[in-house]
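so i finally got all the pieces together for this one. its three components total, 904 residues if u count the protein bits. some of the lines might not be protein, just check the labels. i wanna see the whole assembly predicted at once instead of chain by chain like last time, that was a mess tbh
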Amino acid sequence: MSTETNPEPGITRGSGTQADQEANQRARRVLFGCAALTVLTTLAIFFVLLDNAASYFFGARFTEMLLGAGTERTVTFTEFFTGTRWAPDHATPAHGILPIAFGTLAVTVGAAFVSIPIGTATALYISEYSSPGVRRKLKPTLEVLAGIPTIVYGYFAIAFINPVLIGPIADALFGINVGRYSLLSGMLVVGIMTIPMVSSISEDAMQAVPDDLRNGAYALGATKYDVSLSVVIPAAVSGIFASYILAVSRAIGETMAVTLAAGFNANITANPFDEIMTMTAYMVSMARGTSAVGTVQYQSLFAVGLVLFLMTLVMNLLNDWFKRRFQEEYQ
Amino acid sequence: MSTQTDELFGDVDLGWEHLKNRLFLGLIFAASMFGVVMLALLLLDILTDFYVGLTEFNINLVDFLTRSGSRREELAGFQGAIIASVMLVIVTAFLSFFIGVGSAIYLEEYAPKNRLTRLIEANLANLAGVPSIVYGLLALAAFRNGIGLGPIVLVGAIALALLVMPIIIVASQEALRAVPDGVRNGSYATGATKWQTIRRVVLPAAIPGILTGTILALARAIGETAPLLMVGALFVNRVPYGPFDRYSAMPTQIYAWAAEPSQHFIHLAAVGIVVLLTIMLCMNGVAIYLRNKYETEV
Amino acid sequence: MSTQNTDERLISTEVQTGENARANLPDEPVLAARGLDVYYGDDRALDDITIEIPKNKVTAIIGPSGCGKSTFLRSINRMNDQISVCRIDGELTFRGKNVYDDDVDPVALRRKIGQVFQKPNPFPKSIRENVTYGLEVQGKSATDEDVERALRGAALWDEVKDQLDSSGLELSGGQQQRLCIARAIAPDPEVILMDEPTSALDPVAASKIEDLIDELVDEYTVVIVTHNMQQAARISDKTAVFLTGGELVEFDDTATVFENPADGRVEDYITGKFG
C-alpha cells in the first residue's frame, strides 16, 4: 500500500506551534543581548580610558575633538614614560609616571617573592604529601584567606605588620625608624593575599598529572621528593605558570591593601622601609581629594588607569595562553 | 650474605635520600603553615583591636551600630555605612543578576560553537581579571560624570555590578551545565521548544546553584572598596535616603577611619571590620546552606 | 506457529496474546523512508534506507552496535537536528508528509511522536507534573483525568496514585521508565519511539514494560530499537534488521525474519556468528 497524503498530519509551521516558536526566538534575542552587554563592557572600559587619557595628553577628549575642540600637547609621552617626578597636582606639576610605576612593580615583584615559593610549596604539600585529614582543614583555611576583603588586609598592614613586625626589626637590625607605611609592608601583605591563588591553581595542575607518571617513578625507587620535583612539577608546569601570572596580575591591580600598607610618597627608592606610592594608591589619593572634572589631576587618573589596565590585560592574555597549553596537555 | 647486600646496594646511599625527603617535607610543611599562621595573626589582630576598642576606647557597640558616621571620634557610628552597604548590595543584585544569568543561559543553551561565542567567552575571562579600581573609573567617567548622576548609590552599584557579573555568569553556567542532558532530551522529545525547556525544566533545576553563586558574588561585592572610592563614596556621615542619595559604605568608612592617624579611629575601623566580616560570613553561610540543601536533588 | 525444525529453529517466536490478532490486520503505513541517507560529517550512518512502518503494530529494529538503529529512530522525530554535523539525504515521511520539508516544524512533529529513552529521564518534578508536561507545553490544561489515563496507560497508576505530588526521581528504575512512558502518551501522540527502553532495567521491570507495549500498540504505533533479539522476537509484529554500515538488510514479519530470513547475513547475525 502506498503512502497517500492523509488528512494534514499537522506538522508544518503554523500547526499551533507559532506562538511557542516566536517566544523562543524572542528569548534567544534577549539573552544574546545580555551576553553582548559583557562585550560592550570591555569596549566601554577601553573607550572611557582612552577618551579621558586623550584629554590628559592632548588637552581634549576624543569625543570633544570630534566635536571640533582644539588640541594642545599638555603632557608629552616622553615626559610621561621617562620622567622621574610624579606630581600632577602640585603647584609645579610633573608628569613622570616612573615613580608610581616603580612602586607598583616593586610591590608586585616583592609579593611574588612571597606568594610564588610559598604558594608552590603549599600546593606541593597538599597535592603530594598531606594526609586527607590535613588537606580537609588546610584547603578551607586557604579559601578563607582568599575571601578576606582587601581593605581588611590593608588594615592588617597598617595596624599590625608595619608597626609590630617591620618597625621593630628595622629598628633592631638597621636602626631605621619606620613611619606609618613601608614598601616592605606592601610586599608582604600583597604576597600573603595572593598565596591562595598560586596554591589553589597550582594544586589543581598537580592533581591533573596522571598517577601513572608518578607510579612509574616510584616503581623505579624514587622518593616522594624526586617524584615531586622531577615528575609532577615538570608535568604541571604550564598550569603552575598560569597561577604565577594570575597572582602577578592581581598584585599589579591591588589597591586597598597596598594603599594602607605602602603609602602615598611617589619616589623611587631601594630602601624597603621607605614609603612609596603605587599607581593604584595614586588613584585612591586622587579620589580622596576633590578633583573636579577637567582638571589635570582628574585626567591623570585615566592615564594611569589606562597603563594599569593594559598591564593587567597583557598578564591576563599570557595567563590564558598558559592555561590553554596546560589544557591541551591533559584534555 | 651481608657482603652480597653491600655489593648489591652499596652504592645507594638511602640514608641521605630519605633525609632529603624528610627535610623537604619539613620545608614545604612550614611553607604551608605560613599561610595559616598569617591568617591566624590577622584574625587575632582584628579581634584584639576590636576588644581593645570596646574596652579601652569605650566604643559602645550599640551606639556604633545605631549612629551614623561623624568627624568626631566619640560620636562616630556605623549605621549609615551598614545601611548604605545593604542598599548597594540590593541594587547591585538587581543590576547584575538578570543580565548575568541571561548571559549564562545564552552561552550554555543557545550559543552556536562559532567564533563569536568564543570571543564572548574569552572576553568574560578577561573581564574577571580586570582590577576592581578600573570598574570604578568606568563608572566614574560614564555614569557619575558622563550622564551626570553624581556620587550616588546607584553609580556605586553599577560599578559593583560590572565587577561581579563575570562571577555570576560563570557560576550560573556551571549550574546549567550540571543539569543532565537526558532531561533536556526528554523535554524536546515531548514537543517543547528550547525556551520552554529552559523555562520549565532546566532553569528550575539550576536555580539553587545559580543562587548560591550569586550570593557568593554579592558577598564579595559587599567588601569591595576601590571602585566605590573612585565614584565618591566617602565623606558622608548619614544614612542615605535611597539609591539616588550620596553615601559611604562599610568598606569605605573603614578605610576612612583606618587612614586616620588617631588610635581611636584605628579601633573604630577594627570594630567596623568585625561587623563587615560577620555580615560576609552570614552571606557565605546562607550560600553554603543553599548548596548543601539542594545538592541531593537532581 | 512455525516450522519446528529443532536444529535450525533460530529463535523462539512464541507470540504474545495480541500478536495473533494483529497479524491478521493489513499493514497501513504511517511512517515511511525512501532512500534515506544520514551522515555525521563525512561518516555515513544510514545507507539508502527504504521501509514502511505500519500503523498500530510493533516494529522492532535490531542489529549490532553502531549499525544505525538509534540514528534511524532519531531521524523519525528529528532529534538528530541537535547534532550540528548531521546531514540527511532522501525522504522520511509521516502520514505522507516528508518530515524534512522546509515548512515542517520539528516541535510540531514531536508533539505527534513520543519518545522513550534508554536511560529513564523523568524531570526533577512531581509525578503529576511529569505527566502533564506534554499537554502544558502545548498550552492545553491537563485535568486529573488526563493524568490518570496516562498513568493507567503506562501501568503505573495503582502504584503511584497516592503520591502524585512526590518527586518522580524517588521512583525505582522500572517505575521511572513507566513514568516516562506515561509522559510520552499523555499528549496523545500517534507514534511512540522506544530506544532500548528496557536495557537499563532489571528483568522483572523489563518484562512489565514488554507487557505494557502489547497494550500500548492498540492505540499507538510502536517502533522499538532493541539489542535483545529475544525481546524483539517476543513482542514485535515486524522486525527490521540493520547491519554495520547503516544498511537495512531485511524487513518482514517477525516470524519470517527469525525463522526464515531471506538474507544469509541475518541468519548469521541471529545465530551469533557476529554482532
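The CA atoms of residues 2 and 8 of chain B lie 10 Å apart.
The radius of gyration of chain B is 26 Å.
anyway lmk what u think
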